[in-house]
Amino acid sequence: xxxxxxxxxxxxxxxxxxxxxxxxxxxxxxxxxxxxxxxxxxxxxxxxxxxxxxxxxxxxxxxxxxxxxxxxxxxxxxxxxxxxxxxxxxxxxxxxxxxxxxxxxxxxxxxxxxxxxxxxxxxxxxxxxxxxxxxxxxxxxxxxxxxxxxxxxxxxxxxxxxxxxxxxxxxxxxxxxxxxxxxxxxxxxxxxxxxxxxxxxxxxxxxxxxxxxxxxxxxxxxxxxxxxxxxxxxxxxxxxxxxxxxxxxxxxxxxxxxxxxxxxxxxxxxxxxxxxxxxxxxxxxxxxxxxxxxxxxxxxxxxxxxxxxxxxxxxxxxxxxxxxxxxxxxxxxxxxxxxxxxxxxxxxxxxxxxxxxxxxxxxxxxxxxxxxxxxxxxxxxxxxxxxxxxxxxxxxxxxxxxxxxxxxxxxxxxxxxxxxxxxxxxxxxxxxxxxxxxxxxxxxxxxxxxxxxxxxxxxxxxxxxxxxxxxxxxxxxxxxxxxxxxxxxxxxxxxxxxxxxxxxxxxxxxxxxxxxxxxxxxxxxxxxxxxxxxxxxxxxxxxxxxxxxxxxxxxxxxxxxxxxxxxxxxxxxxxxxxxxxxxxxxxxxxxxxxxxxxxxxxxxxxxxxxxxxxxxxxxxxxxxxxxxxxxxxxxxxxxxxxxxxxxxxx
Length: 650
Prior knowledge:
The structure is a single chain. With 650 residues, the protein is mostly beta strands. The chain is built from ten helices and 49 strands. The protein has three domains: 1-30 and 267-535; 33-262, 3 Solenoid (Pectate Lyase C-like), CATH 2.160.20.10; 544-644, Immunoglobulin-like (Sandwich). The strands form five sheets. Strands 10-12-15-18-22-26-29-32-30-27-23-19-16-13 form a 14-stranded parallel β-barrel. The radius of gyration is 31 Å and the shape is elongated. The two termini are 40 Å apart.
């Protein structure tokens, strides 16, 4: 590596580390500045009997005098039995307290006051630009009494659904551009924040903790353990932090501190079947959302994406994720792209450290880029066969890139990088933490490239590169380095030189290029001088010249690097123009296949009023190049159309 490239890599690593350290240092603010709204101010005073107690009746009186809009100012008091319905305030509304811990809104007790919906329920006719700032919302989960045991039926379902802190959802076109800032949300059974069908919200600088109940360190009290039917269902439904659901777009979740949750800290999920591949236009799917600079500790998982498009997750920290008893989900990971799909998703400069399972888990269909993320000391106390970076896509198709990853410390995971059930994965640049026993392990996958990466052994590491069964077109380039492993390479079945479509290009003492190519199915031993072992066209495009010669067409061309022979196609020029450039309907025939070199004479002219086009590609080692010229004037690639025509050179 040259000096400039080395300095660039150092700068990238230093920048990523700086981002991660900054994320670790996220501290919630007790109060936030309230931008001027121009609305009148209404204080929530002790104005309604019973006097001496601030409660929901006082809030209702203040809301009545607030219409058609105001800044509703809460005093530094504790308000009891709060369940606020935010309805129509056409001029706008802000709910503002005196600061976290100073203004406390306490939820009703289910078993005392009866069922309640949400502590703050933002209705479909609520105004855009709603603000909620500088409050503590207390769900009182340790005081909530479950309904009578009805075999986990209607009463139980209502109970667990109605213990949310803030809810805004279920109707498009309203409740946009809201703000939730500097709010402490604690001790709720179900969820802290749920947004649905909302655009342009900012959920920033909040402290969310102790949500849900689980069997590690968030029990709900002895009376819960005695209630036979509730334990397992409660784990499945409760304990989320910030949930961006159906129809949430252009929303920012930033600078939040989230601790002690039974489920995910931050979720983006539509909840239905996966979106079609490369199609993010379905209105229901959350899209164009940003998750940035959040710190998540001691939750079941950090960030989960399960049916969302164009999500950016950057500069977050997830530490100490634990198995909380929520058995129906993947627990103990830092970042999860789940089976619902992660279309056009970017995870950049995030830190995963000390999590009970792995750091990064990619399961769902979609195009995902993991760029410059950091991990260390993951898979704490678990024996699950996962990777610190786990690309586990059984039954799904993928387009995933892992680049410039930074290993802060070795991992106790089954592998530093585990690739299972993937179609299309590129691992390039950076360092991968060594696992126990593998550095990298790949099985049941195809079209995988590993290059320019350094894999470092840790405690328990035995094998640098492990190949399992079911591989096709897997390339490990000679630029991949495995450091400190007792054994560099292991095949679970077969081995080198057995035509199993695995190219391993870095055996010491063996000429790397022939060895690399010899492992590819269909390899021709004569072609042992192949310059690179990549799964794409290896031949540059020749330049074609067509001249008239006594009524015939004389074709000549340049001799590009890497070409041993050539294919020449002919097609109908009018059909090409009439179809808008569709080569599948305009190709006529293959004039020459595997031709050694120019020139080529095409006898005769087209019929009057007709015309022909010609296209040329080079070949090497029986691998075809491209009919494309590489010119900016070419509108789109020619190769798929010519191949689909049925007249191509095969």
